[in-house]
Amino acid sequence: MSKENQSQSHAQSLIVRVIVSNRYDTISGDLAQNEEAEMKVKVVAHHRGEGVFPTFAKGTAVIMGDECTHFPHWYPCVIKEHETYIPESFVCDGRLVRDYNPTELVAEVGEVLEVQEIVYAWLFATNADGIAGWIPSMHCTGGEQDDCS
C-alpha cells in the first residue's frame, strides 16, 4: 500500500470512529456538536501552520482557486486579502456560509487534542492550552479515550 493510500485509509478509519461516537452531518461533512460525546486524538506527526488568521464573518466574500490536489474538497482562496485554504462546504455563491478561521494548529508529537469538528480529512481541534486550529487527520491517531492517555 502506498504512503498516500495509507494516509487516506487512516483518515477514513479516524472518521469512522467519530461517526460511531458522534452525530455526523454527511451533507456538509461537519461533526455535529454533542455535549456528551468527546473525541480526543494524539498527534503522531508534528504540524506547523501557515500563521494566525482573523475569524472571517459569515457573508464575507471569498475568491476561490482550483481544488487542492492533496486534500479533496479544500480550495486555495483569498479572503479579505489573506491567502489561505477553505473547505468547499463553507462557501456558497462566493460568500462564507458561516464564520471561519483558517488558522492551523501548531502541534507536537504526543500532544492530545480535543476534536471540535471534522471537515474533509481535517480536524478543528483544541490543545491542552485551549488553543484551537486546523490539523490534517493524517497527523493524528486515536479517537478513543484509551488511545489518548
Layout of strands and helices, then pairs:
Elements: H1 3-21, E1 24-25, E2 30-31, E3 39-43, E4 63-64, E5 74-79, E6 82-87, E7 91-92, E8 95-96, E9 112-119, E10 122-126, E11 132-136, E12 140-142
Antiparallel strand pairs: 1-2, 3-9, 3-12, 4-5, 5-6, 7-8, 9-10, 10-11
Distance from N terminus to C terminus (CA atoms, Å) equals: 29 Å
Write the CATH fold name of the domain at 3-50 and 103-148: SH3 type barrels
SSE order: HEEEEEEEEEEEE
The order of strands across the largest sheet is 11-10-9-3-12
Q: Estimate the mean pLDDT confidence.
A: 81
The percentage helix is 10-25%
CATH top-level class of the domain at 3-50 and 103-148: Mainly Beta
Strand content: 25-35%
Note poorly predicted spans: 1-28, 144-149
The assigned structural class equals mainly beta
Q: What is the oligomer described by this structure?
A: single chain
Radius of gyration: 15 Å
Number of helices: 1
User: How would you name the CATH homologous superfamily of the domain at 3-50 and 103-148?
Assistant: SH3 Domains
Extended strand count: 12
Structure, explained:
- The protein is 13% helix and 32% strand.
- With 149 residues, it is mainly beta.
- The protein has a domain at 3-50 and 103-148: SH3 type barrels.
- Strand 1 and strand 2 (30-31) form a beta hairpin.
- Residues 1-28 and 144-149 have low confidence and may be disordered.
